[in-house]
Amino acid sequence: MAAAKGEAEVLHPEYKLDEKVRYLGLPKAFVAGAVVFGDKDECAAGVTVTLEGAGAAASAAKQTTETDAFGDFEFEGLPANTVYKVKIAAKGYAPWETEVRTGASVYLGDVVLGK
């Protein structure tokens, strides 16, 4: 990723305009949300959330994180227009899964886990 290396990049490479102006630290797409235990109506801290490439992006590296004390999670620096599967698993609760496309950043809102 160019921004992580401190390299300059064009704002809209998809236009192929051979721009002369380049930028550092352009924002990238993200996938984020919050997890709630439905039976307790409380934030789900320490829950495992996995992001995997789907379809053509299946070769993309699998990323895993845990929710923070507020049940929040986020995967940053994702390429645009890529399909991913988001999987949430907590012991004693039914697993949850959805597919998202990073046409822009995606916020899933509150994901309520049931037993």
What does this structure look like?
The chain has no helices and eight strands. It is mainly beta and 115 residues long. Strands 1, 2, 5 and 8 form a four-stranded mixed β-sheet that branches. Strands 4-3-6-7 form a four-stranded antiparallel β-sheet, with no helix packed on it. It starts with 28 loop residues before the first strand and ends with a strand. The model has no long low-confidence stretch (mean pLDDT 87).
Count all strands and give the number.
8
Shape: elongated
Helix/strand/pairing class, anyone? mainly beta
Helix content: under 10%
Rg calc: 17 Å
Approximate strand percentage: 35-45%
* Strand/helix succession: EEEEEEEE
For the biggest sheet, the summary is: 4 strands, mixed
Low-confidence stretches: none
Mean pLDDT: 87
Number of helical elements:
0
Distance between the termini: 39 Å
SSE diagram, text form:
Elements: E1 29-37, E2 42-43, E3 48-53, E4 63-66, E5 72-78, E6 83-89, E7 96-101, E8 106-113
Parallel strand pairs: 1-8
Antiparallel strand pairs: 1-2, 1-5, 3-4, 3-6, 6-7
A few lines on this structure:
With 115 residues, the chain is mostly beta strands. Helix content is 0%, strand content 43%.
